[in-house]
Amino acid sequence: MIPCSEQLLPGELVKAKRTTRYLIPFFSSRVQAGFPSPATDYIERVCDLNDLCITNPEATYFVRAAGDSMIGDRIEPGDILIVDSSFDHVDGRIAVVSLNGDNLVKRVRLAGEMIVLLSSNDEYDPIYVHKGENFRVFGVVTWVIQKPR
């Protein structure tokens, strides 16, 4: 198994707070990524990123990703993950978990009595969580914020 180098440090978890609202114009016309088309200047409404990305403020945290184990899911080092700790169902979801004191971001799969933590980079082997290990799901990744590369 390749050592896990993308451990999250405790200081990298930040609680989401809705103290300031930034109302940003939200245009109803789409922006072409291919050939240009005439665009309209019609503003559909204003959009607050809190309203768009945070559905449960009391249970939402931000964390910065490290390492390259999740690049197949377009999670790159330095990206900000929005994590909701209120989700009950995690099977098949990308989540921030704690395993024996290490915080990781992985896809969680339930396999009978066993939990398997999967990377989306073929360079990393699955991590099998065995009975008796200190395991906890911190929350499900609901959004990934990244700068264009």
TrEMBL record:
The answer to whether UniProt assigns keyword Acyltransferase to this entry is: no
Q: Keywords of this protein's UniProt record, alphabetized?
A: Nucleotidyltransferase, Transferase
Q: Which SUPFAM superfamilies match?
A: LexA/Signal peptidase (SSF51306)
Which NCBIfam families does the UniProt entry name for this protein?
PRK10276.1
Task: List the source organism.
Answer: Rudanella paleaurantiibacter
Q: What is this protein called?
A: Translesion error-prone DNA polymerase V autoproteolytic subunit
Q: Which Pfam families match?
A: Peptidase_S24
The organism's taxonomic lineage, starting at the top: Bacteria, Pseudomonadati, Bacteroidota, Cytophagia, Cytophagales
Q: What is its EC number?
A: 2.7.7.7
Q: Which InterPro entries match?
A: LexA-like (IPR039418), LexA/Signal_pep-like_sf (IPR036286), LexA_repressor (IPR050077), Peptidase_S24_S26A/B/C (IPR015927)
Q: Where is the Peptidase S24/S26A/S26B/S26C domain?
A: 25-141
